[in-house]
Design goal:
Blueprint lengths: L4 E5 L5 H20 L14 H9 L5 E5 L5 E9 L4 E8 L8 H16 L3 E6 L3 H10 L2 E10 L18 E4 L4 H13 L4 H9 L5 E7 L5 E8 L6 E7 L2 H13 L7 E5 L3 H10 L2 E11 L8 E3 L8
Parallel strand pairs: 4-5
Antiparallel strand pairs: 1-2, 2-3, 3-4, 5-12, 6-11, 6-12, 7-8, 8-9, 9-10, 10-13
Helix pairs in contact: 5-6, 7-8
The structure holds coenzyme A.
Amino acid sequence: MPAPLDLRPLAPADHEAAARLLHRSLVHWYQSRLGQGARFGDRHEPFRLFPEVYAALDPGHAIAAHDAASGNLLGVCFVHPRRTHVSLGIVATTPEAQGRGVARAMVTPVLAQASRAGLPVRLVSSLLNLDSFSLYSRLGFVPHTLYQDLALTVPVTGLPTPPPPAAARVRLTTNPADAARVAAFELEWQGIHREPDYAFFLHNQVGAWRVWVLEDAGGALEGFLVASHHPACVMLGPGVARDEAAAAALLWRALDAMRGASPVFLVPCAAAQLVRQCYTWGARNVELHAAQAIGLVPPARGVAFPTFLPESG
Ligand SMILES: CC(C)(COP(=O)(O)OP(=O)(O)OC[C@H]1O[C@@H](n2cnc3c(N)ncnc32)[C@H](O)[C@@H]1OP(=O)(O)O)[C@@H](O)C(=O)NCCC(=O)NCCS
């Protein structure tokens, strides 16, 4: 019979243990199932970025599961309540505790609270990780959009092909007022609203973020893309573009600004032309993810780029 769990908010004093747990859990799972543990590196220190970003962005919302008897940390679960929905992720448990219901115990109260608030719950789940997919599927999540994770080592001399035509209209912004503009654009095109995330990226105090915007000749937004430049998470997203041409322009500019690095980004599998364009830049498939939800998924238009930091299915 599994030991009783003590579920409580993850405290700053738990960040070191949470970083160790995330690293060990991911390395163990991906190494034992897929022989891919090396992709998470051999140090846990970079994983401190996750609890630190989440503590700054959603203070008090991350959940820690401790063994009630020993006090050992057995699992963590990060939760991001938003105006239109609740985002969930990362969820991880120690290798020794896996299969004992720890993840289910952490996620269940989040679902109950979202249900009471009348909000859908969203996440992106790896399709290579059946334990994760099954956990969410059993809890009632339903996949709605398929993404391919692409990785690209950007040559130090820049991307090998000329920029797409609209790339000249992509620019960096650090203007705090753009948080509301970008959030309104995402609400219009994807039906979700998360202005605090964009205010957080533009404030740029925890992590290392760049926010790219694409505007038409009249200054109206055609898309945006956030890039994480922190060495612990070199990744593009979140972002939304009105069409594949706008998405290609944003991606090209954000990637070209990461010379010598190997960012990962998620592209909707349905955006076939965009995917082909990414291949011409040298992108390789490294994983598949499904955006999943419990509750209403509003009709979405355009191209969305989800990310894992912060989880943004
Ligand atoms: C994914 C992960 C969090 C699951 O944690 P866990 O504590 O082992 O999960 P639980 O024991 O609470 O629940 C697993 C559920 O999936 C079910 N399950 C597992 N494999 C299954 C399968 N192949 N088919 C159907 N159900 C399956 C279990 O029966 C259980 O459901 P139940 O509670 O209804 O019986 C854990 O494997 C982990 O930390 N992996 C490494 C980190 C990671 O990849 N996290 C996900 C990325 S965000």
